[in-house]
Amino acid sequence: MEVAVNNEGMNEERFKRRTDVDRSVFQTAVSDAMAKVRSNLDVFQDKFLTSSTVGNVYSLNVYGDTPTANPDKIPGANVGWTTGFWTGILNLAYELTGEQEYLYVVERQVNSFEDRIERKIDVNTHDIGFLYSLSCVAAYKLTGNETAKAAAIRAADHLMTRYVQAAGIIQAWGNMDDPNERGRMIIDCLMNLPLLYWASEVTGDGGYKDAAYQHALNAYKYIVREDGTTFHTYFFDVFTGEPLKGKTVQGYSDDSCWARGQAWGIYGFALSYVYTKDVRFLEMSKILANYFLNRSPEDLVVYWDLEFTDGSDEPKDSSSSAIAVCGLLELVKHLSDEEEKQYFFNAAMQITKSMYEHYSSRHEETSNALLLHGVYFKMYNHGVDEANLWGDYFYLEALTRITKDWNLYW
User: Fold this and answer.
1) What is the pLDDT of residues 372-392, one digit of tens each?
2) Average pLDDT in the 22-51 region?
């Protein structure tokens, strides 16, 4: 099945002009970010941060994805879906500075992730990819840490238990027989697939890659609408594989385009292209990127749902823009058309500059975050106009990509 998508194309004139940005601004942004990261080391060495801030300040993580994840409410526990972003930030910090203190902390956290997957603590979710790609896969790639490699392979094995053969998808949430979650894929999972692609590479077992590829194909076929927007979630019949319906959990409505989901798609389809060389994924990444950029407001940082633009009085979500920038910078590495490459590169540079100048914490001395004005869960009023760990991670990944030659953790 081929997908026919009507897309507006590269319509933003401000991204067509070659970006005249003083590159030193990004080095300054890195320095500012590193000062914040370093100040967090004393508290968050073998402990983890909350998913999002309160008053722009992270505290010790307590709550995971299930009520039983941390029954004793131990502060700083490695539970929930976001702890890997903190370890990923530390891996980036090591690459940006060369300072061994970051590796020392990463090694301690790798041991925590090894224990977590061995004891199956709060891993009943597809977000194992977020957890283990940025912690253990990254640590193995950077230093050859065999403990990290073994833990990541075990995590990939566990992620495979969520693969629904008949539907060709990885179920996102809940027990596999949960009637409310059974057969649900979500667009975020495109970012979890690299753990499986990597596992195939290091083990020689093609089963991981086959499952990831089939999931990506179903996301390509069903989660993208004809206008280049995306569903947050999509349901399949787990017995027949029949596609059923698209819905949202975190977006404004079932028919709107949740900004973070669109950003996951930009980056996630580009990553599936990296591992499969299926050009359909590269084309889809461009389509989603064009829609995202065409909905960019004046300061280039999007609102939490792309339904909204300037004048809507809705909150921005800086994390969506940070994710999108990383996707754009990966996308341009694989394009052959010079006009397309320049357009998406210009957009990435301009958005990153705006994030640093208007959304970073450089003037917020009391904040221990990197990127402010994000949104976690708008409909529950959770983490609205706050920093969040994934926003911080992708902001720092964007700066790393811009300022040095960087190899994927994904």
Assistant:
1) 999 999 999 999 999 999 999
2) 95
Please tell me whether residue 26 adopts helix, strand or coil conformation.
helix
Selecting among 20, 32, 188, 299, the annotated active-site residue is 188
pLDDT at 1: 39
Query: Which domains, from first to last, does the chain contain?
Result: 13-403 (1.50.10.10)
Residues 6+ apart with CB under 8 A from 105: 41, 45, 46, 90
Amino acid at 208: Y
Active-site residue, from 127, 305, 317, 392: 127
Rounded distance between C-alpha atoms, residue 128 and residue 144, angstroms? 21
Contact 76, 47 (CB under 8 A): yes
Residues 305/256, Cβ–Cβ less than 8 Å: yes
Catalytic: 188? yes
Catalytic residue list contains 127 = yes
CA dihedral of residues 96, 101, 106, 111 (deg, nearest 10): 170
DSSP secondary structure letters along 379-395:
GGTEEEEE-BHHHHHHH
Which pTM does this prediction carry? 0.97
